[in-house]
Amino acid sequence: MQVHQIILIICSLWLLSGCNKQPPEEAKTTERPNILLIMADDMGYSDLGWFGSRIRTPNLDRLAENGIVFSQFYNTSRCCPSRAALLTGLYQHQAGVGEMTSDFQLPAYRGRLNDQCATLAELLQPAGYQTFMSGKWHLGSAPENWPNKRGFEQFYGIPEGGGVYFYPFHKKRHVVLNDSILEPDSSYYTTHAFNDFAVRFVDQALAEEAPFFLYLAHIAPHFPLQAPQAVYEKYIGQFKLGLSTHRQNRLKVMQEKGILPQHLELSPPDEQVLNWSDLSEAQKDSLDLKMAIYAAQLEILDEGVGQIIAKLEERGALDNTLILFLSDNGGSHEETGLWGSYSKLKGPVGSPGSYESLGRAWANVSNTPFRMYKHWVHEGGISSPLIAHYPKLIPEPGIDTQVVHIMDIVPTCLELAQVQYPDSLRGNALTPLQGKSFVNLLRGGNREGHETLFWEHRGNRAVRKGPWKLVSAYPDDQWALYHIPKDRTEQNDLSSQYPEKVEELEADYRKWANRVGVVHRRELEKLGY
Predict the structure, then answer these.
(1) Residue from 380, 100, 347, 140 nearest 224 by CA
(2) The pLDDT of residue 422 is above 80
(3) Scanning 174, 338, 349, 487, which has its CA 20 to 30 A from the CA of 21?
(4) Rounded CA gap, 96 and 77, in Å?
């Protein structure tokens, strides 16, 4: 018996001991949906099978086929900031997570959720929702910042960041059940464990009359490339068509399904990505193997989605459950084999003894058809598929092309849960919500969206206002202007033709940056960060 199965048995006994609390009588209603929020880590825009990838994701494909796919959904371009915006309905700077988890002693850069924000769990739990989390937290590593201190009644997972699969981990990470630190054995694999506990939490929640909120935050398919060989070996040889061919095939599928417009063209291949025909057979084999392992990591995540769906169907709860699936940022260009001590690990790629990443070449494919990657705020860094599945509300499956931001998820869930956003929490005034509900979009209608949206991460900046996007990459800091409906792959810079539009959007950006507490990357570097 594997260790995570033993842990599940212990957890079940603990739950049966009477620790469940009955929700308030007035909260018992079948009108409010269960809410299941599933986040992938570092998954590119086109990595799901439904988007044209060769990766097997039948369960997520099913949700996409029978739900709504939002083709212009935006994240914040990085893991911690996206998680902060996702759970609070604010810009990440307002929640205190303007960068990562280091504390810069600046209001927008504390590296943890501040007291002026409320998580979705903190908002739903007092209204009678059961609240659970399984997976990676990454919003404050100290015990006083763990999920069970921010509204989650039960938490299983890793409070720190990701980057781990098999145990023992290469990084300092802890596996936690509520307040207890667990010691897995070598059979442990994070994605399996996260999936198992998610199913367990759903099973427990459905035994009660109150609705539930479950946040399932996976590490997969974030580096390192580690997966059971039995899963990835069937993919070996499937990714040797050539990088450009995979990109073209994915774009064709997305255009045929209406995810992307017919006129859209692929962004040019990254200049640092070698031509496939120039590679040796050994290099091609190496790239093929890496993508096979990456595919396995995502397939295992998808298996867990299938297990949850099966549990919901078994209990007759699927129709009244809002399921949202997204990624925290675009695919990652990072080359982890070059990182310090990790480069000394000698195990075969995919094994517990390795620490390899997918790399820039495949990330360029993952983010098809867009430019750039995680970290940057070009479309490749901030675009994610958002799949919404809620049969009780969605009248007809399809593609929605309206702009939606990750911070819109909280107000959407609050509207469906019939919960008002409070002015204060635990005696602290809350920052007003910045997101906007998209419930009307789920109903097949329209909404009054954001007039302007803003991004900033590590000096990379962007503004989206109507059809226009102003964007710059650090350290160049040169603004480029794009007309997104015509040029979402950001190939035709119009800044010299429309200097007045650049001036307008830059002024908007500066006002926003001052309002939310952005400190320019150069200033942070002067302070030693």
Answers:
(1) 347
(2) yes
(3) 174
(4) 16
